[in-house]
Structures are given as C-alpha cells and as structure tokens.
Specification:
Elements lengths: L9 E6 L4 E6 L2 H7 L2 H15 L13 E4 L14 E6 L6 E6 L3 H7 L4 E5 L6 E6 L2 E6 L8 H12 L5 E4 L2 H4 L7 E3 L3 E3 L4 H7 L2 E7 L9 H17 L3 H7 L4 H7 L21 H7 L1 E5 L9 E5 L9 E3 L3 H7 L8 H14 L3 H17 L17 H13 L3 H5 L2 H8 L9 E2 L2 E2 L9 H9 L12 H7 L5 H21 L4 H4 L6 H11 L5 H21 L11 H5 L14 H15 L9 H4 L5
Parallel strand pairs: 1-6, 7-12
Antiparallel strand pairs: 1-2, 3-4, 3-6, 4-5, 7-8, 9-10, 9-12, 10-11, 13-14, 14-15, 16-17
Length: 609
C-alpha cells in the first residue's frame, strides 16, 4: 500500500570534493522498507560499500556520512526530536551510528529533506548551509580550532541569523580523534562511534540548517488526539516529576543501589561517595534551569552552574547519567563541580564522554598496576580523583598531544601499543563500554556483545529488567528480551523519536504504530514495524560481517569474565564463558544466522534492490 504522506521524498546528496549537490527522489518502496533514520542510513551505507567492494577507509573521502531524521521527527508527539548520524566507524571499522536530540533533525525535515548524505572531502575547512531549497558549501577556514560552542556563534554571525540549527565538531573532530562527536543545540551530541572524526576527515566543520516548510501529516486530528493521550499518560506517571527535576541524573542513585555503577574503571560497581555526584547533589547546589528536546515534556536536560570554588562560572547542559558516571565514579571523582567541568570540556572539544571516561580510567589503572610507565604518560602522574590531571588528559586527547595521540585512537590502538591493557580496558569491537556493568546480568552482557555498533547500551538496556524480574528466566527468555530490545529500540531511531518515554515511564509501544499511521496514512501494525526494524538489524550485521566481523568478535571484555565485582549486591559476580557461548548460539539461531553469526544469502537478498 502506498505511503500517502509523512515524507517529502527527498534525498539531498552532497559531494564535498567536486561541490556537486543533488536532490534525489526517494521511491515508495524505499520509504516503506527502511522507514527513516538509521534505516535510511544503513541502506545507503550498504549500497556505498557495495560500490567499493566493501573495501573502504572510514576516514577516506569515499566513506559516506548519512544524516537522517525519521517520519515522526518534528511532529506533535512526545519526544520527537531525534536524528541519526550513520557511517562506517573509524573506531571500529564497521557499521556505526549515533543519534542526537534537540531540534537539529526537526530543522532538517522542515527544509524539505528526509535524508542527507555527504561524500568526499572539501578543499578547505567548510560548512554546509541548507536554507530550505538552497544548499551551499561555504569555506570557513576561520573556524579552525574553534570549540563547538564558538563555532555556532561565529556561524550565526556570519550568516546573519539565529533562526537555524547547527551540528558542529570541535578540535577533536578536526584532529580525527576516533571517538569525536557531533555537537548540536549546545550539548545534544551524536556522541558515539566517531562521527565527528568523519566530519573532520571531510573538512566539514559544521552543518547549518534553516527550514520553514510544514511537515507532511496525513491525519492531523488523529495524531493530535493520540499525542494528547500519550502526553496525559506521561504527566500522570509517578516518576514524571522526578524526571523533570533530575533527568537521567536520577540513575546514579539507582545504579549504585543495584551495584552496576562503574567505579574505578569498572573494578567495582558501588561508589561510596556517590551522594556527592548524584541528582540530589545537582539539585541542591548546581541546577539553575531545565531544557528539553523538541516536543518533550520530560525536560530531562539540566542546566547547571558552578557558583563557587575553582570551577566558578562553569555552566553546561548536563551532565546526564553516562557522562557523570564515566567522568565521576569511574575515575574516582567525587566533586560534582569537577564532573561539570570535564563534561563542559568534552562538549567544547567535541569528544565523547563515555569513551573519554572509559579510556582515562584504563590509563589510571594501567599506571597504578605498572602496565604504563611514568614515561608512557608524559612523566605526568595521574591517580583516581585527580581532577587536574584528568582535565589535562582530556585536552591532550582532543589535541592529540603526547600520550593523548595514542589514546585518541581508541581501545584497539591502545591495546596494539600496550597489549597488557586488554585486561583492564572495557570495549567490544573497539567501542568503549557504556556506564552499566554487565556482570550483574548476562542478558546485558549479550546485548553489549551482539550490538551492531559495539558496547553501547542504547541497543539493549535489559539490565534493570533482569535484576528485577529475571532470576528464573530460561536461556530462551534471556535471548528473547535482548532481541526484543534490539528490535524496538532501533525502531525508535528509525521513526525519529526518543526511547525514554517508553523505557523509563512505560509509554505503551502501541502508540507508535498509531503515530506512524496518522503521520503517513499507511495502515500498519507494531509487529510490521518491528519486522522492518529486524530487517535493519540483519542489514547492519551484514555490513559488519562483510567488514570481517564474526563470532570471535561477539565477545566481552576480559574483566567481565575474569575480575569479580568487589563489593555491593553483586560482589563476586562474573560472566561464565561457557554460559555466555551457549546463549550466543541460541541468539544466532533465533536470528536465523549461522553458528558463526553470518546471515544467510536469503537475508542478504532482501537488500539487493
């Protein structure tokens, strides 16, 4: 059945090398099969890889960067501000994506574009300016070395308007730090998989978008009624006010209580001074305002200001849980003002807080254990909780100075330089692990190991469910919950909406089939949408296997198998290798892949068009 609305049916393709700009038509079949967001991106990246016989340098001009909102981005429904950034990751050498909230994706849609793809390399540092139906590549060498926030201000002044949204990189992206991020709307980041390094490799400092077009919606009245019901449900939830007050910072308390909070480079999972960096501490001493992504009533962004002490005047949006945990407890930092300073510095320099905190934690432990010598770290000592040394190392990573040059290349290159670091650094396939310890729940471990981008929680955050309900789960049930999360959560990325209303406040998934129907005019079901999302997971797996990934790579960090949790409710726990391998075989069977994790030809044939 035709999709009658919901899309502009336009693909903007930009070649930075020769300056060619094309507006291409999207077919109904493409829209129906791939929906939007990471679905569009995965297909376009797959097609580009096939053109290059799957031999591609992620930092070369032939690598394709895709930026795609979804059909629900920018319309009236809860948390519809998401936009996906998709490419081949320079950190992992395989499929990579990251999503950003705020309103950049909304503005992109309002310019009449469903998907933007960028190839090549500009002759000099430039920005891409999309102004409704007009697109320009504008050289701006004066932006070199500017922070993400400075870049926004200069572009506003240069283009003579604030009526736009900007996605920019900092010096981390310019210097091709392999975990550089893309910063939008002050501190809404596409943080993972090194998308910022890809922009840097293309000499693309920023993308500025101004759009005034009405979004295509098939049934506005039906959509408004459905959205009102969803907003009403959220507003009456018992934790709604807590989310408005603390946002994701409330997870610090939860993670510490349940023994999954990364502490001292994941050596432990309980931080005895967690109350100095939790949501209550933020509310009592630092929070000065709220912020929210487009159409979101949860307002989970916290505007914080340091009012006294050595970091006086530091203001930032954040931190959220991941940043606070990885730059706080994981590094032994118990000063919330120092966490804010580190978070702000990462945002300004344009590097991912999760990877940064993970790698610095490994450096501290590596030095403590004698794996790294004092000479290895530039004769500058570093220890748990050493705020000055941590901030200095953040700068060194972004500028690739001294030991920062090696650290900027991520876990795989660090291990190449110092093989013993493999025993203490936490990554899967080269992507540093998110801030949830998995030794407490094997389903979470399976989710990390089989994630199509590496050890990131957004694909399958099953840890809470398993700790609270999973004591008697069968192996099949553990596999099923991982696959369900890996299907539903990426569907949100395809639709262009945030997962938090569902995962945190329990908004029923059925709302999204109704949202999609009212926006596009296409009769569908949640089950059908989930099938499309499952297809995309197969597609990203195909991309990865063509880049060399197989069963040997679907594994866990050494610590998860060999280093028991030290204290707290999960003391003594590790993941049993044999049990994990058994679950992995069940997982492959349930997905229809072979014993080595390779999808068969009949799955690949779905994407031959």
């Amino acid at each position: 059945m035709n999709i009658r609305s919901g899309y502009f049916r336009k693909h903007l393709h930009v070649n930075l090398t020769d300056g060619e700009i094309e507006r291409l038509d999207l077919s109904e079949t493409f829209l129906e099969k791939y929906i939007g967001g990471r679905g569009f991106g995965a297909k376009l990246v797959w097609d580009n890889l096939r053109m290059h016989d799957f031999k591609i340098d992620p930092l070369g001009p032939e690598n394709l960067l895709v930026i795609a909102p979804g059909p629900l981005t920018g319309v009236y429904l809860p948390s519809s501000g998401k936009c996906s950034f998709i490419s081949i990751s320079p950190a992992t050498g395989m499929y990579g994506d990251s999503s950003a909230g705020g309103a950049f994706g909304v503005e992109l849609r309002q310019s009449g574009i469903d998907v933007l793809s960028i190839k090549g390399r500009a002759p000099e540092l430039s920005i891409l300016f999309i102004d409704n139906d007009s697109t320009e590549i504008i050289p701006m060498p004066e932006l070199k070395g500017k922070s993400c926030l400075e870049t926004e201000g200069i572009i506003f002044e240069k283009l003579g308007t604030y009526a736009m949204h900007i996605a920019a990189i900092g010096v981390g992206g310019e210097n091709q730090v392999l975990f550089a991020c893309v910063n939008t709307d002050w501190s809404r980041n596409a943080g993972r998989t090194g998308i910022g390094a890809i922009m840097g490799s293309k000499n693309l400092k920023a993308i500025a978008v101004r759009g005034h077009k009405d979004l295509p919606v098939y049934d506005v009245n039906g959509l408004v009624a459905e959205a009102d019901r969803a907003y009403e449900y959220l507003s009456k939830h018992k934790y709604f006010e807590l989310w408005q007050q603390q946002g994701l910072m409330n997870v610090i308390e939860y993670a510490n209580e349940h023994g999954i909070l990364p502490t001292y480079n994941f050596r432990d999972t309980v931080f005895v001074r967690h109350d100095r960096i939790n949501g209550e501490e933020m509310l009592d001493r630092y929070k000065i305002g709220d912020s929210a992504c487009f159409a979101c009533s949860m307002t989970c962004g916290n505007i914080c200001l340091v009012k006294n002490g050595k970091y006086t005047g530091t203001v930032t949006e954040g931190p959220e849980y991941e940043s606070c945990a990885m730059l706080g407890s994981n590094l032994g930092v118990d000063n919330f003002a120092a966490v804010l300073a580190a978070n702000r510095l990462c945002d300004e320099l344009g590097i991912d807080t999760i990877s940064t905190g993970n790698i610095i934690g490994a450096v501290i432990e590596g030095y403590e254990q004698g794996i790294l010598s004092l000479a290895d770290i530039d004769n500058e000592e570093i220890a748990w909780g050493d705020e000055d040394a941590i901030l200095n190392l953040i700068r060194k990573i972004a500028f690739r100075e001294g030991v920062g040059d090696i650290l900027s290349q991520g876990s795989l290159r660090i291990i190449e330089r110092w093989p013993e670091m493999e025993k203490i650094i936490l990554h899967v396939k080269g992507l540093e692990q998110s801030a949830y310890d998995s030794r407490a729940g094997i389903s979470m471990a399976l989710g990390y190991a089989t994630s199509d981008i590496g050890a990131h929680h957004t694909r399958a955050w099953t840890i809470a469910k398993e700790m609270e309900e999973g004591q008697n789960w069968t192996d099949e049930e553990k596999v099923e919950i991982v696959i369900y999360h890996q299907t539903l959560r990426p569907l949100f990325d395809m639709l262009g909406v945030c997962r938090l209303p569902w995962i945190e406040l329990g908004l029923n998934e059925r709302h999204y089939e109704n949202f999609y129907r009212y926006v596009t005019g296409r009769e569908t079901s949640l089950e059908e949408l989930l099938e499309r999302s499952k297809d995309i997971y197969d597609l990203t797996r195909l991309i990865n296997t063509r880049m060399g990934v197989n069963r040997k790579d679907d594994t866990l960090p050494y610590k998860v198998y060999a280093r028991p949790v030290l204290t707290g409710p999960n003391a003594g726990k590790v993941i049993d290798k044999d049990e994990f391998q058994k679950l992995l075989s069940l997982y492959y069977k349930r997905r229809g892949w072979d014993e080595n994790g390779i999808p068969p030809r009949e799955i690949e044939a779905k994407f031959d068009d």
